[in-house]
User: Fold these one by one.
Assistant:
Number 1:
Amino acid sequence: MAKAAKFDRQEVIDLATNLYWKKGFNATSMRNLQDEIDMRPGSIYAAFGNKDGLFIETLRNYTDKGISLIHQYEQEKDSPLEALKDFVKYQVITTKEDAPNSMCMLTKTINELTSDNQELLDITKAHIEEISQEFAKLIEQSKELGEINSEKSALELAKYLQVQIAGLRTFAKIDGVECNLDKMINECFDHYPFNA
Amino acid sequence: MAKAAKFDRQEVIDLATNLYWKKGFNATSMRNLQDEIDMRPGSIYAAFGNKDGLFIETLRNYTDKGISLIHQYEQEKDSPLEALKDFVKYQVITTKEDAPNSMCMLTKTINELTSDNQELLDITKAHIEEISQEFAKLIEQSKELGEINSEKSALELAKYLQVQIAGLRTFAKIDGVECNLDKMINECFDHYPFNA
DNA sequence: AACGTAATTGAACGACCGTTCAATAATTAT
DNA sequence: ATAATTATTGAACGGTCGTTCAATTACGTT
């Protein structure tokens, strides 16, 4: 044994996540990151490899936090459907003002990157699929409880929800104030394909 | 009078549009553009001002082409609703493989840029609103023909459609092949809020 | 207290960034 | 033919990019 790293890894990753999330991968420079996380280039490269490596860790961090939040809602709420609905509202409404960026970091990355960064793209896609699976689990439970009356599979409904979230968050950034997001989200759950 | 510019302005803007669309604003360098449109820096700056100026022209070009296409469908198709539906399918399905980028250039820009480029952001938002208006016009006509039975206003339905397009295009880029986009789009028009 | 090991530092690298501008070329008007 | 005007060229600017690495520092072990 020798020196132990003095920086708090989780704290650093959180700061990096917020900066990458705010500015996007391309617009975030290593020097921006150095300032934000207060580390010198050598330390960053020793700890995370390179710009991509750090970004990959922040993606993992972002997705883990999202999934944790789903599980938290799952425990707090009365039904899996309520948990899901509240999570969607959190993603679209709360995040709109409280987060580093009103967009989902994963869809933002999907939007920004091209095949020039195929690895990052593939990882991002896989994370979105992970969240699909979490949604599908809740929907499956909800179906068994008879809360949902739909001929569509849980995974289809999960992906339908992700379409709505992606669309609503984009729309919310454009339209600013004058739209009732809460109502629009309720309507997603009240009508087809969630309920015929 | 003296020399006339020898380059074809429309052709140059088309090439620039495709490159900006493909790579995004930040990842497209002036040198990338120089190669793509075969002009030297001095000529580009004389003709378009700077990187932002050229981008603004490509945004205008992109939006104009979109609106023209809507009008073209409007003339070709039997009903305004058919025109609208076909335009949506074109945006989501055809564009997915034939275009420089499967994403809409406008929403991609909204996703990418921050307040560091407020002017570009505002212009982009305004263009999306323009397209809202075009959608609303078709929907209004369609309502008068009795094709749509909805308590929502034409503009609300137009924005609902834009949410669906933004969501579906993101989703389509993630999910790759295994989803029936055509069916999903039909369902948007067949159910609430388009038809109760 | 001295040693070995690993974390940290920060200057420096070559490449590329957006942009400028003096020099040159090409066209029209005289 | 000459002059006037404007488009075009491409080298060059200062700055920033992602990244490297020799030197230094700080800690656990002996």
Number 2:
Amino acid sequence: MPVERVRRRIPEATVARLPVYLRLLVEQGDEGVESISSEGLAELAGVNAAKVRKDLSYLGSYGTRGVGYEVAFLVYQVRRELGLTHDWPVVIVGAGNLGQALAGYEGFGERGFPVAGIVDIEPAKVGSVIGGVRVRHIDDLSQIVQSRRVSIGVVATPPAAAQDAADRLVRAGVTSILNFAPVVLAVPRGISVRKVDLAVELQILSYYEQRRVPVGLHAIGSNDSGRGASA
Amino acid sequence: MPVERVRRRIPEATVARLPVYLRLLVEQGDEGVESISSEGLAELAGVNAAKVRKDLSYLGSYGTRGVGYEVAFLVYQVRRELGLTHDWPVVIVGAGNLGQALAGYEGFGERGFPVAGIVDIEPAKVGSVIGGVRVRHIDDLSQIVQSRRVSIGVVATPPAAAQDAADRLVRAGVTSILNFAPVVLAVPRGISVRKVDLAVELQILSYYEQRRVPVGLHAIGSNDSGRGASA
DNA sequence: CGCGCTTTGTGAACACGTGCACGAATGCCT
DNA sequence: AGGCATTCGTGCACGTGTTCACAAAGCGCG
């Protein structure tokens, strides 16, 4: 079956859901479930069954009609498609509150994103150990990225320092950035950036909270990142 | 002009961008800028100018042709639409790494979401002070929510405890939840939930990183949460 | 061995979001 | 006062994403 890789393009919305399916499938596998239907997976993921089938169909025809999907096999296929067949070490810039929390967050390592290093511009912060990783000075960034072959950087600095952090990451050779600072980063073409803005999430909730006048009447549509759900 | 409030529905995608515009407008205001064009705001936000105009048009016709938008007035209008005319105290469940980082994150309070309380189920964690707030036991949740009139809860627990945390928040009277645990929460109808899954964001980056073969050729479309940008 | 039940995979319709392009409104300059 | 440059507001076409609905495919049972 693995004759060739066609590199069909997968819709952005689907890419954002695949990690969710993957997590649920792994959980099911751990619980001994060997096979699952699109209906079952849809229920777990809180989405429509047709959507699950269409999403999975982008990977290929890996289901069995009348039966469902073999969990272990599907896990393998989703992992392969997402590029999770090997680890992606990440480097964190900024050892403040958030940077420390991220460095100590086990979910990263567990899901294939070990923290290769954490750096800060503040000499006072250098040296302390967080989540088993020693904080180093930002001048060592290139060295870390190069020696550990890091391609993903995380910006966890104050807003004012975020653009500089991104610039340094790019110069060091990183090609993807996850930005937690509430700032629109400017990066060269070809560098992927994703943004997580905690306050923005709260402000969106505020919007719906504010117009919650006829109690519990409106439904909040989920956006394509699997956010926004109401049950 | 403020004759009546029509309560026109604003598209989800627009709601997700308004907080970004708001932040940029406030920044511009602080720098003394009094007026801004859709083109200018679009550049700052990294989006299309037509999109900015259409987004803002949902609030009403607050621009002046040939001139642009008055920054201070627009800030007021966006705030009003997002329900940010008053503070929304939040309560954080889970005083682990992430919960502590969130409690200590000044961006919350600054942007109108003061931390009314942080609770944990672990007695050992109770009592310590984070970001000026004392950690209390989860049994005090209802009391905090009620006395501080909290309607937004933040779930920052380990995955296994997340559903229980959500249940408790709902029982305590919270109507919106921001969930950081990698779990699909089940909540009653009418409760808004938004999810932020850090590992999912990395996995999405991994997908694009993995197929980065013809270097820097593909463009990553932004999703409607203002994430995913490449320049 | 074939019939009926289940569930996939996907075409087609629909809903939603984006971007262009242009009329309409406004300020400025002469 | 009139014309010109600018920028908003929006109709329209396009693209993307979602959902329905059904034929095709496979399993199990009698």
